[in-house]
Amino acid sequence: MHDMKRRFALYGFGFFIGIILVFFFLGGKRASCNWLPNDRILNIIQQKKIEFSEEAQLMITKHQIDSLSVHQVLRKGNVDFSKSEVKNNPCRKYIINGNQPLEAIELTVQLCDSIATIIKIKNAP
Q: In the sheet where 78-79 sits, what is the strand order?
């Protein structure tokens, strides 16, 4: 019984040291795990240089859409994979719908190797 307590104590000590090391090495970094396809696509888009097509810029001006709202949709929106063109080469197109309170905004994003272009913005009244 004494041997079992000693094993648990050593295991707990090693586990604690391991957790401290992980927080030390990853604490200052923006490390993340994106397991779901929606999160992965949004993360990939955020890592690219984002540009707006002329049509998208006109929609922003016409409907007075705040660019912060567009970036919020790109960060926390829902990718509609059924409407997206995910097998296009070299660039894929994704339809991204906003969440509350931005559910009226729908973005069409063309994702290429080094750039993500917002080619269309729909704003339902």
A: 49-52, 115-123, 105-111, 92-97, 78-79
